[in-house]
């Protein structure tokens, strides 16, 4: 179990042990930091050779614009997109080995998306680093953009590795009441509260391409399905994580 919070992970591991009788292993991971992602992935690979399911479910929403990643990228995009890309690609050997060893010949990558992706049908690559374009978009649009990119990334993983047994899906869990909304102001939280579902409802999902509540295959924004956009995003991510991936 990878988490940036040891306390949260310890609590979750204890709950899982009560339910399953088995104990998960904590791996320190801060998705906003490429160094942390690479370290965590290498730690996993030193312990395990096969990985059957990877859940890219960590993320941030509307952090202050003053927050940027250790490498200087927009904090939201670094956490929600760059980190999951680097983690997934670094763990790819274990995922491919997991697919080979599975009865159905598949390993799965599940990336958390959001209905908010519809607010940003395109990715402004100038806004992914600190500067005027990023400030002009603002916190909410930057979050929506990251969720758009998550769907694009998920589809591109499927396109590149589907014939090797990797099943990649993007899942919209619904509007859930979780710690993700900690950066929202009190008025926004009050407005949203009647529409929020308990976080436990977010697990009621089926495998598919783009999943929406509850357990239905949905249609993502048409722009997220464009193959050229997927290729461009992949190339951008590959280029901007090259130094970390070489470690």
Walk me through what this model shows.
This protein is α/β, with parallel strands linked by helices and 247 residues long. The protein has a single domain (51-245), classed as NAD(P)-binding Rossmann-like Domain (Rossmann fold), CATH 3.40.50.720. The chain is built from 8 helices and 9 strands. The strands form 3 sheets. A 5-stranded mixed sheet has the order 3-4-5-8-9. Strands 1-2 form a two-stranded parallel ribbon. A hairpin with a 3-residue loop joins strand 8 (210-212) and strand 9. The chain is globular. The two termini are 22 Å apart. The model is unreliable at 199-208 (pLDDT under 50).
The amount of helix comes to: 40-55%
Uncertain ranges = 199-208
Count of the separate structural domains: 1
Shape: globular
Give the C-level CATH assignment.
Alpha Beta
Strand element count:
9
Major β-sheet strand ordering: 3-4-5-8-9
Please name the CATH architecture.
3-Layer(aba) Sandwich
């Amino acid at each position: 179990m990878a988490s940036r919070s040891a306390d949260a992970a310890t609590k979750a591991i204890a709950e899982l042990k009560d339910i399953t009788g088995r104990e998960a292993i904590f791996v320190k991971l801060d998705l906003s930091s490429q160094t942390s992602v690479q370290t965590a992935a290498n730690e996993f690979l030193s312990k395990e050779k096969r990985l059957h399911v990877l859940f890219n479910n960590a993320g941030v929403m509307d952090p202050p614009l003053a927050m940027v990643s250790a490498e200087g990228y927009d904090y939201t995009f670094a956490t929600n997109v760059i980190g999951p890309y680097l983690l997934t690609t670094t763990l790819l050997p274990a995922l491919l080995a997991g697919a080979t060893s599975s009865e159905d010949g598949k390993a799965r990558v599940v990336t958390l998306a959001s209905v908010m992706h519809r607010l940003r049908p395109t990715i402004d690559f100038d806004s992914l680093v600190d500067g005027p374009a990023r400030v002009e978009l603002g916190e909410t649009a930057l979050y929506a953009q990251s969720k758009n990119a998550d769907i694009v990334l998920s589809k591109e993983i499927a396109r590149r590795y589907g014939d090797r047994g990797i099943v990649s899906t993007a899942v919209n869990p619904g509007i859930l009441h979780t710690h993700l909304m900690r950066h929202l102001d009190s008025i926004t939280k009050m407005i949203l509260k009647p529409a929020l579902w308990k976080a436990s409802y977010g697990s009621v999902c089926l495998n598919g391409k783009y999943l929406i509540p509850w357990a239905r295959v949905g249609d993502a924004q048409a722009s997220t399905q464009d193959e050229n956009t997927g290729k461009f995003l992949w190339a951008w991510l590959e280029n901007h994580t090259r130094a970390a991936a070489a470690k």
